[in-house]
Amino acid sequence: MTKLAVSACLLGRPCRYDGGSKAHGAVQALAEREEALLLCPECLGGLKTPREPSEIVGGDGADVLAGRARVISRAGTDVTEAFIQGARVALAQCQKAGIEEAVLKARSPSCGSGSIYDGSFCGKTRPGWGVAAALLRENGIRVRSEED
After folding, report:
1. pLDDT category, 35, cuts 50, 70, 90?
2. What pTM value is reported for the model?
3. Which of 25, 84, 97, 135 is deepest in the core (most CB within 10 A)?
């Protein structure tokens, strides 16, 4: 049985908005010791790679799930529904696999845990959770980043 969900980009999968990855040695070593479920909520929601970067405007992932905030691409396209759909698919996969913990990409609008970009596309961060991270947490899955 899978024990850990991991952002696919942290394990070297080229699924980030820029078509790259953010392979992280410590996370890769952890995933080798545990049976890991690889996730990219943005891809699971139907977004292409590469794609315009997106940030949450008006709150964080919990606010997006509650309809109080939106996820907007740098070009101004509202991609909220793709982020919500990807979060739901990620949650379903985690629940099916019996996942209790996830290591997700820091500051991502999907995966950010405790800190996300502020919606200005200026590289500034603020406290908050990405959409998928918020949904996993709401459903009892412990979420941390590669920086934890």
Report:
1. confident
2. 0.94
3. 135
CB-neighbour burial class of residue 67 (10 A; exposed 0-12, middle 13-18, buried 19+): exposed
Q: Are 96 and 37 in contact (CB under 8 A)?
A: no
CA angle 44, 64, 19 (to 5 degrees): 35
How many Å apart are CA 116 and CA 23, to the nearest integer? 19
Tell me what pLDDT residue 8 has. Answer: 96
Distance of CA 86 to CAs 89, 126, 133, Å?
5, 23, 11
For the stretch 56-102, pLDDT in tens is: 999 999 999 999 999 999 999 999 999 999 999 999 999 999 999 99
Distance CA 38, CA 52 (A): 22
